[in-house]
Amino acid sequence: MSSVVDTLVEMGFSKQKAEIAVAKTASQDLQVVMDWIISHEDELESLTSSISDSVPVSAPVEVEQPANVSTSENNVEMAPVEGSEEPSPIAKSIRCDDCQKLFKSNEEVEFHAAKSGQSNFSESTEEKKPLTDAEKKEQLAKIEAKLRQRRLEREAREKEEPLLREKNRINNFSESTEEKKPLTDAEKKEQLAKIEAKLRQRRLEREAREKEEALLREKNRIKSGKEMLEAKKRHEELEMKKIIEQRKREKEEERLAKQRVRDQIEQDKLARKAKFSGAASEPPVAPPVTTPAATPRPAVNYTEIRLQIKLPDGSGLTQTFGAKEPLSSVRLFVEMSQKVNETSFSLMRSYPRKIWHLLLCSL
């Protein structure tokens, strides 16, 4: 990892922001990187917040020190120059003659020149020293102060913008010496007609909306009622099938029991007859009772049904209805026959006993 990134992290900046700043400046000068962070605070925040969608930040470039350059602060290596016996000093940095700042690379020099407008630079044998802990704290305090000042300025500017817009809006009005004239009768009637038209339009819209809502509620109620009736009908059909199967089993058991009794009676008759006749005969063996296999009846889809309706006065009505017609059609038929004086009545089935109050289910 770059030493500049480590230094910025120690000073309190996040690693991500430090890497972005180093990559943007392409410099290993701590002062240059910190100046860029201060001058591009908003851009750095936006890059950090959208780093997942942006182009990955390139890794910071490590600046390798040449092998022939010593890292000692006091020792300066001398390289021999052609045609001269004495070695010439090697430049270890670039100095700004205007502000006396040291830079390690040409990128740092270009950044400083573009920022400050200074153009007087010269090579220097003095090596740029790393910042001490006290200098780091001082630089961090300066950066925090600048960031705080920029934040306060931005907040003040954001507060002033609504006030400025409101002032501009107010300035669009001006006082006038012209007196507002009262409305004439024709203008009053016109304004009143417009207001009444708007009120009528709103009333119609509200009524249409209420009708739609009522229709929707009614549809939902009918749908839920149909679902409940269908579920109830399915349950009743299952119960009816169970009752029919139970009755069939009971009838079969009763028939088998009667057959066994009849066979036993026949055996007793034969035994008594053989006893009185004196003939020695073996007791007859009862033939095995065979139960005929129930042959499945083919399913028949009926389309019509004929009903015989018995009225309270003892008279009857006969009518053919569709198999899928609701019981409300039966009720309507009874009402139209004019033989029932009551306005409200129910339909009842004798066996198995059942009374219908809701007449939405089908026949």
Automatic annotation (TrEMBL):
Residues 1-40 form the UBA domain. One of its GO terms (biological process) is negative regulation of protein K48-linked deubiquitination. Residues 125-169, 177-189, 246-271 have a biased composition (Basic and acidic residues). Residues 306-363 form the UBX domain. It is found in: Cytoplasm. Residues 66-91, 112-189, 246-296 are annotated as: Disordered. It comes from the Eukaryota. Pfam families: UBA_7 (PF22562), UBX (PF00789). GO terms for cellular component: cytoplasm; nucleus. Keywords: Coiled coil, Cytoplasm. GO terms for molecular function: K48-linked polyubiquitin modification-dependent protein binding. SMART domains: UBX (SM00166). This is UBX domain-containing protein 1.
